[in-house]
Amino acid sequence: MIRDPLPGRARKPRSVGLTMVIDKGLGLGPTRALLELAGEYIDFIKLGFGTAALYPERILREKVALIRGCGVEPYPGGTFLEAALLQGRLEAFLAATWDLGFRAVEVSEGTIDLDHRDRERAIRAARNMGFTVITEVGKKDGSQELDPAAALSRIEADLAAGAAKVIVEGRESGKGVGLYDREGRLKLGLLERLVAGLPDPGAIIWEAPLKAQQEELIARFGVNVNLGNVPPEEVIALEALRCGLRGDTLRLAIEGARPAAR
């Protein structure tokens, strides 16, 4: 076999080059098929929004065990935890989530507003139970512009409180929210202002459900950029992008191999 045109792709177990898949309701059969085909390329599967609450319990337990058994970490979407926080049920939510077999959770405020102390308390409570904690910055409401200074402050505080990674909001559409305009194009100025203040870009998972977004972030950060909200059917295509096995990123390998102009 040929070598990857874009070399350096991290292999499992890895802490960079993470791929988080958004699952909006796959049954056990499709989940098993996805993992058999692409489990090596997936690090997290997020059961989007509050969908985990709607599974029959037996199916949910079996699905969580199936995913974890394939070396992938499933977790319920942050909206589910936000609902628990609204109801004052954080501890009960965490206990039930642990009992169902999850070992990762997301702390977010995409819809609700959290005082920074409540956000830190949620992160620490989950960490103390043994969860891997992923947090998220940004609002799901596209009318609320991402503030780089506020986002950086949140990221720094979340990591200090024990978050393993921090997601930058992009929703499942990748349009009109966070770093993306209504057409799904990256707001490059906003991205660069955010990146300039990051102590460790590898701590960030960029939600990037669209191919053009994935391509641009790979070009900007390299093959081991962390990407999230990837549709299940796009996992193999994304891995091809990462490795330079798709024309859109093969050109990066070609350009990198060219001698400098004199």
Automatic annotation (TrEMBL):
Descriptive protein name: Putative (2R)-phospho-3-sulfolactate synthase
Originating species:
Symbiobacterium thermophilum (strain DSM 24528 / JCM 14929 / IAM 14863 / T)
Protein family according to the UniProt entry: Belongs to the phosphosulfolactate synthase family.
Q: Which residues form the signal peptide?
A: none
Superkingdom of source? Bacteria
* Record-linked InterPro entries: Aldolase_TIM (IPR013785), ComA_synth (IPR003830), ComA_synth_sf (IPR036112)
